Amino acid sequence: MSTARVKSRTKHNVPSEAEPIRVVVTGAAGQIAYSLLYSIAKGDVFGKDQPIILVLLDIPPMLPVLDGVVMELQDCALPLLREVIPTDKVEVGFKDLDAAILVGSMPRKEGMERKDLLKANVAIFKAQGAALDKYAKKTVKVLVVGNPANTNCLIASKSAPSIPKENFSCLTRLDHNRASSQVAIRCGVPADNVKNVIIWGNHSSTQYPDVHHAKVTVQGSEVAAYDAVKDDAWLKGEFISTVQLRGAAVIKARKLSSAMSAAKAICDHMRDIWFGTKEGEFISMGVYAGGNSYGIPEDLIYSFPIQLKNKGWKVVDGLPINDFSRAKMEATAAELVDERDTAMAFLSQ
């Protein structure tokens, strides 16, 4: 064994520690972040041997709350957590980042029109995109969670021209998990017995949860979801509306938006970017639509079936699309085109 090799080992013959990666969570004083930060800091996302520097970014009035979050993270005594940095400054928050999880956005308030919501969020994500462009690593992986997530992601990407478009994605994994779970419950199997559901389009009530290509393992055999469920009317009706409207149903019941399930979906999404998807499986994420084979307008962030490897993604091409699916895919694309055009008008102001 060479000397250099010996030096890179500890006395227990374990490889020496990896360099910490730097991860920012925006909206870090909010409830999604509260469910998310522990999972990141304990190694559930980036690996059980990957040290983390966690940057918590929020607006100035939330800094006292962030101090409490920092105390709790310290009190968890997590071995991988090297440093926690609370801040309200983008130059601190976005410096030298390996990963950015953009949770913070302007929520829709009662009586607020969608265009008002878009206008407020264009300002936020234009500023954050510009800060990423200026301060983060060019290899940074950016996940946009704050709604309207697809269009916010597009604005952030356009405001960060030196970072590849492929490095930006938005969260539709929560919808994907909801769809998988609904099928699993219907078939009486564990959730991981369902694979390859697809969320097409926008993270909104126009999204299309599609199980035409999904498989369910029932009593040891893998069968098509339609054959496992044996209820086409449910799959084309109530199943779709349940997934589309699930966020609103949670708010109605809990008087708060989905936080635990959103945090779990963020972890799933980022872990798959870091470690890849399983052979023969795909997940859903909102990505830049350029060059897609499904006829979706190109200058959008649109949710597709995705496979990941070596921190890069590709759209699963060539899946047969029937007329029922085509109509729903086009309807959600039309909403995204409308959102994009409204947002771009604000962006140019």
Automatic annotation (TrEMBL):
Q: Which reaction does it catalyse?
A: (S)-2-hydroxyglutarate + NAD(+) = 2-oxoglutarate + NADH + H(+); (S)-malate + NAD(+) = oxaloacetate + NADH + H(+)
Positions annotated to bind NAD(+):
58, 121, 145-147
EC numbers, comma separated = 1.1.1.37
Q: Which SUPFAM superfamilies match?
A: LDH C-terminal domain-like, NAD(P)-binding Rossmann-fold domains
Q: Which segments constitute the Lactate/malate dehydrogenase C-terminal domain?
A: 172-346
UniProt keywords (A-Z) are: NAD, Oxidoreductase, Tricarboxylic acid cycle
Q: Where does substrate bind?
A: 108, 114, 147, 178
The record places domain Lactate/malate dehydrogenase N-terminal at 22-168
Q: Record's InterPro entries?
A: L-lactate/malate_DH, Lactate/malate_DH_C, Lactate/malate_DH_N, Lactate_DH/Glyco_Ohase_4_C, Malate_DH_AS, Malate_DH_NAD-dep_euk, Malate_DH_type2, NAD(P)-bd_dom_sf
The active site of this protein is located at 203 (proton acceptor)
Q: Which CDD domains match?
A: MDH_cytoplasmic_cytosolic (cd01336)
Any one GO BP annotation for this protein = tricarboxylic acid cycle
**Which Pfam family is one of those matched by this entry?**
Ldh_1_N
Under Gene Ontology molecular function, one entry of this record is: L-malate dehydrogenase (NAD+) activity
In the record, the note on similarity to other proteins reads: Belongs to the LDH/MDH superfamily. MDH type 2 family.
What the protein does comes down to: Catalyzes the reduction of aromatic alpha-keto acids in the presence of NADH. Plays essential roles in the malate-aspartate shuttle and the tricarboxylic acid cycle, important in mitochondrial NADH supply for oxidative phosphorylation. Catalyzes the reduction of 2-oxoglutarate to 2-hydroxyglutarate, leading to elevated reactive oxygen species (ROS).
PANTHER family given in the database record: MALATE DEHYDROGENASE
The protein here is known as Malate dehydrogenase
Organism, by scientific name, is Gadus morhua
